[in-house]
Design a protein that fits this description.
196 residues, alpha+beta, globular, 4-stranded mixed beta sheet
């Protein structure tokens, strides 16, 4: 189906079947995954209630892909993500993840070409290593916003007698450090882009 400005409407029926109103055919989650990869926008509605259930269907597609062994989401990342539900930082996470994915998407072609030029056949190993480092950086960044885990509140894990108010004093420097690291990463990406 040709791309249009309007998203395709998908209806999900009680029997769990998905109906593509654009092609007038029943589709599977795999078909929807192909549509996503082809950058074809769609919205999924519950046929009975009319509720927009796009988010849950997209999540189901990710679950299916992860179940096939195509793991993009490391276990530590998933655990950290679950910890943010109901947390005061929950509102920050979607925009942070969206920004990160948008940046990665915009740079992926350049990165692939540069990795192939730099590493030849081992380019994908280098990319995988970079993804792991990015996940670790994300985890460290999120820990800066949550200096104490639920079990550490009111206790001092560093042993220097610092408690809640002093921990709050260190947060701006941690934030500044994170900003500095992001600036350095952007400079590195720009330097790699300039080589081409």
């Amino acid at each position: 189906m040709a791309k249009t400005n309007e998203p395709t409407i998908i209806k999900k029926y009680a029997n769990r079947r998905l109906y593509n109103t654009g092609t007038s055919t029943y589709v599977t989650l795999e078909d929807l995954a192909v549509m996503v990869k082809g950058e074809e926008d769609f919205i999924v509605y519950d046929a009975k209630t009319g509720d927009d259930i796009t988010r849950s269907v997209l999540t189901q597609i990710i679950f299916e892909q992860e179940g096939k062994g195509q793991n993009l989401l490391p276990v530590p990342f998933l655990r950290q993500l679950i910890r943010f539900y109901g947390d005061s930082m929950q509102g920050l996470v979607p925009s942070f993840l969206e920004y990160s994915m948008t940046s990665l998407t915009q740079e992926q072609d350049k990165l692939r070409a540069q990795m192939t030029d730099a590493f030849g056949g081992t380019a994908f190993d280098a990319i995988e290593d970079q993804v792991k480092r990015n996940a670790e950086m994300f985890e460290r960044a999120m820990k800066m916003f949550m200096p104490f885990s639920a079990g550490d509140v009111g206790s001092d894990s560093s042993g220097d007698g610092a408690a809640g108010p002093q921990a709050a004093k260190t947060e701006p420097s941690d934030l500044d450090d994170m900003k500095r690291q992001l600036t350095e990463m952007q400079a590195k990406i720009n330097a790699l882009s300039d080589k081409n």
